[in-house]
Structure formats: structure tokens, C-alpha cells
Amino acid sequence: MVKTRFAPSPTGNLHIGGARTALFNYLYSKHHKGIFVLRIEDTDVERSKQEYVEDILGGLSWLGINWDEGPYYQKDRVDLYREHAFRLLGAGLAYKCYCSTEMLEEKRKKALKEGGKPHYDRTCRDLPADDVSNEGKPFVIRFKNPLSGEVSFDDLIRGTITFRCEELDDLIILRSDNTPTYNFTVVIDDALMGITHIVRGDDHINNTPRQILIYEALNYPAPRFAHVPLIHGKDKARLSKRHGATSLLEYRNEGFLPEALMNYLARLGWAHGDQEIFSQEEMIEKFDLPNVGKSPSVFDMDKLSWLNGHYMKTLPAQDIAERFLPFLEHMGISAPDRAQLVRIVMNQRERAKTLKEMAQASEYFFRDDFPVDETARTKFLTSATKPILVDFLEGFNALSSLDEEAQKPLIEGLTQKYNAKPVNIIQPIRVALCGKTVSPGIFEVIAILGKEKVGKRLTKAIESIQ
RNA sequence: GUCCCCAUCGUCUAGCCUGGUCCAGGACACCGGCCUUUCAAGCCGGCAACGGGGGUUCGAAUCCCCCUGGGGACGCCA
Asked: How would DSSP label each residue in A223-266?
């Protein structure tokens, strides 16, 4: 049984990178009909915040990634980690270290300056067992790394990776305040929770050999590892707040659809031939680790927008209308007429990349005091176009239906009378009704607005012209 | 500095494992055209890449080595 996990630390929002890691873990487990676990790694009491926990859970839920187990909180499991730490201490596989933070910092700096590895010099490693000189002093527990030999593992994405033990440090597993550290808790939890496959960012490659050594010391079987490349910003550097490192929920607020974001994230670093569009079911069916690329990818907003536009156009209109509503409400607009709303969505969705854009472009459908673009007004609401509007209004009032077939002859009649192209007749009407030169087809706009509103708006526009 | 990872169009990528069908395919963006009541959408077309150098081979994007470039790690953060 395949069991994967996503184990974020709540020291920041869930961003694009984290979400993709979560997605890959989720897809891999579901592909193998396995279990996906969510675990919150909150052992850093200083930096962990409840608001981030909420952001992470909210972001995953919105995206559509559901976990089968958890969320587990490491905070609730500290006794477990301590037990393990002292077990290693008792077995001689770990030792107490009394070096102060300041001292260590100095040693690091010095080593770096001399061109060496900034590693712990193992001062306390060989302190005699009956040493009493440090009695009562605060201490940390360090893991006793093998001094020689190699550690290697077979990465599911990159193949075999080997490290020499000399490169590894005697890392701290229990801090002086008695709290455990990441490289230790992660091993214990993954082992105890029965995680079979660890999919994570490749910034963890260096941690892997240390963790494998801990698995061995603890006598736990090690899982398989798969390190996915990091996502970069346009400047090719690691994703930061400037690029896409904002909360996933920001994308929701900007009017992106979770289907689009999930699709985009899946294709960032993974491919299945030439296919671009994947439903969640298809991703689960087709996702596999060997198809994940090895090189870092750049987050591309344009492509995300395109995908979002695609889903805007292809998801059921009723569905889009449902999700569209909050964006209207955010603008202080209520849309009680369901059928009308769906009709607006059907006409606007191909001209908007996001729900937010669509809301902004649809204001005139809901408000009579919609803004009027001044450039459009001076160009199309003029003394020259006034008679067209007057004529149109007159003909319009006589219409018995607002169907396209009923409206068409009216416009055609005017093009003949004024010897003008349709565009010259329609644009003034459009500006009168919408306040701008851009809108869905004029027949649709009129049908959606209805007889009364169209009449009022035309009258108002005519009166505004000197 | 040391260690680790990576390297195909501007971007996401297919192809690489199992060399020839690749003067490298798809998608986004961009440019042009068609359609057209505006804007979009849609359709058609175009631009555009195997980082460099050595090997191996009849033949290399594909295998090997070096260089260069980029990224990551080196915390009582995760």
C-alpha cells in the first residue's frame, strides 16, 4: 500500500511551490490507490502560527486536494520524539553537547573563512561517559554520524545519489529547550506513520542521507524518496514573495478556478506526452514519478491565465455562475435572477480570463449608474450619432420581441437609411447601453438588459447629447 | 569555500533509458491572416531551442568525459 504525505511547516502561507509538492504526493498516492497524509510540522514554536495552519488547510481544500489522514500536529507528539532521542543516547548512538550557540557560530565562521566545511567540530562527541565537568549545564543531543563510509539512495526521479559520511554533520536532534528538530521528527513520523514514498522539494536532497542514517540507527525501514525540482520565478531564482510565493488563496481571490490551478501545477514539472488539459481523474490516472522532470521550472502567469480561460469556457455555465456570485457581491452587486446570471456568464466568459475580470466587465448589466468611458462617449455619443439613437429607440419601442430575429431588421434598416456599416450603428448603441465600446454582441446585451432598461438608457444617452 | 542537483524554443515541455523515422514535436506568449456589430473566442499560418568542447559510433538531442552556466544545501528553520 502506497502512503504519501505532505508535511508543511506553518511558518508561512501555502504557496505555489508547496501546493505542487502536495499535489504530486496526492496524485502519486491516488494513482496507486493509496493513502495521503497531511502532517503539520510545527516544532518551531517561535515561527509557527495558527493563521498559517489555516491558510494551508484552506488552500489545499480549495484546490481540491483532500487528505485521508490527519492533519497530525507534531506539537502533540513531542514526548514521542524525546523518547526516541534518549533511546539513541542510551544506545550510544547520540551524545550530549554542551557547546553554546555563540561558540558554534564562531567556529562556523572561522571554518568558512579558512575554506573548510562549516561543520560542528565534534568537541563533545568523545566526552567520557563519567564526565562531570558539565554537570547541570544546558545541553543538546546530537546524532553520532558515522565518520567514514557512504550513504546512497535511489531517488525515484533522479536515480542514485551518493554522499560521503565525512560530508555529514553531527546534527542536533533535541534542542536545549528539550524540543526536537526537523531532521529527527520527520524520520520518526514517516516511519511510525508508515509512509512509503516521500515526495518533496530537491532542497531536501542534502537532508536525505542524514535522515537515512537516523532510520538505520533507530532500526526503522527507510521509505523511497523522490525529489522534485523547485519552482523558480521569472528571474530564475527560487520563488519568493515577488513572484508566486503568495498564498494560494490569493489566486482564489483573484478569480482563478481551482481546476485551472491544479491543471497548471500538475504540468509544471510533469508531462504526459503533448497533453495540456487534464481533469483531476485524468491526472490521477496518468501521473507517475518517472515522468517528473529534473530541472527547475519557471512559474508562468500567462499560461495559468490561458488555462483559467479554458476552464471558464468549458465548465458548465451554471457552475461558473455559482462561483461568479461572490465576485459580484464583493462589488456590492446582488444578482437574484439566476437565469439572467447564467446568460451573462455564457456571454462574458469567453472575454474574461478570471472571475474577477468578468465581474468588472459585467457591472453595467446590474447597475444603472454604471461608469461611462469618456473616450467612448466623445467618440460615439455625438450630435452626428444622436439621430441614429433616436431612430433606434423609436424602432425599438415598437418591437414585440427581443429575439435576435426581431432586432436584426431594425439595425439593418438603419444601416440603409444612414448608408452606414453596421458597426457605425451599433457602437453608439453599445456605448449608450454599456458605457464602453466593449461588450458581448449587441443583440445579447439588449436581450439580457430587457426592454425597460434599454429604453431608459437610450433616452438618457440621447438627452446627454447637446 | 565544500558537497549535492540540474542543463531542448522567451516560458512549460515531448523526444533521451532501448542512438538513425528529429534539418527536433506540442502548448503559452508573440507576429500575421481569416471570421466579424466592438472586444474576445475560434480557425489557419509564422517566428523560435538541443550551452560549449572533446570522445564512442557508419550515425548523437539521445551514451561517456571535461568546461561553462544555473540552482540547492551547509542552523538549537523546516
From this structure: -EEEEEPPEE-TTSSBP-TTTT-S-HHHHHHTT--HHHHHHHHH
